[in-house]
Amino acid sequence: MTMGEGTRAVRAGLPxxxxxxxTLPGPVFAAHYHLPGEPTGPYTYGRDSNxxxxxxxxxxxxxxxxxxDGVETVVFASGMAAVSAVLLSQVRAGDVVVLPDxxxxxxxxxxxxxxxYGVAVRTAPTGGDAQLAVLDGAKLLWxxxxxxxxxxxxxxxxxxxxxxxxxxxxxxxxxxxxPLGQRPLDLxxxxxxxxGTKGLTGxxxxxxxxxxxxxxxxxxxxxxxxxxxxxxxxxxxAWLAHRSLATLQLRSDRQCANALALARALAGRAEVTGLxxxxxxxxxxxxxxxxxxxxxxxVVSFELPDRxxxxxxxxxxxxxxxxxxxxxxxxxxxxxGRWGGDAVAEGFIRFxxxxxxxxxxxxxxxxxxxxxxx
Length: 374
Fold this sequence. Notes:
This protein is α/β, with parallel strands linked by helices. Helices cover 35% and strands 15% of the residues. The chain is built from 11 helices and 12 strands. The strands form 2 sheets. A 7-stranded mixed sheet has the order 1-7-6-5-4-2-3, sandwiched between helices. A 5-stranded mixed sheet has the order 8-9-12-11-10, covered by helices on one side. The longest helix is centred in the last third of the chain and has 19 residues, at 248-266. The termini are far apart. 48% of the residues are buried.
């Protein structure tokens, strides 16, 4: 049966209907299960498997690769647990990994750990497909598109084809786009990886990560890593995440529309520079984003003149939380330079559009900009 994205999000991962049982069964809290005889069943111990994970993994797989046979999903306690699992389960000492040098703030920590294990790491910017220049001899290419926080976009299929031609695996961080914005596996990636903490679950109330791939052997190595390090999600978090998927399309449509409206409003402000949003026709990445994305995400980035100006702006907004992370139904923004890990200006703002009424959100931001300039 062919389904639209909204229908798929609402129905993803639901079990067969059974009389007197709930549509989505509640979380299963179990460290162990009844296990007489040989341990041949699907559920043996709480670190290995859980029925609540199973339904969520099926749901995420249906969103990342609709209609795909043999899709394997592994959920984790956080996005960084998922990132670490892919990298550390697939490479070993002497291998070469290519990372973006403008990606998520924790990637330098990942690089440090890889190098301590004897893995060579090369980096290049996301924009302009610059990672192509450092692919020779790599074992794994890590792509982040759109990049966080700069929102550059690269050509996933072009990079994946080049990497595969050289024998490298390809992983794409799909956190900013979500499965409704971009499907990395359809673009040639071996792994789609994301922090479900962000837009996938969209309420800012849980930590979650996941890995999706079509190769059972690759997935098994990732799953084994999860078992070894114990980076498992709690059943309550997994159930809340699954429940939240039902509104993914509704949330994404409103948040992406709000992000575009906000970007258009910011484009007319003299004090705003470096504005980036892939959905803006004038954005440097727009043409490529249109070719490989179906939605452009909820995040807008821009610069205000300096640190003090940015902090005055954040103090003035009333409908926007001054908070890190992104993808929640409640708009948030932060002066990204306060963390010290991103190569951004002191007045750089990462803004995550929520699901408020667009007129209210834009009006609040413009009023705050006026107040910050005064």
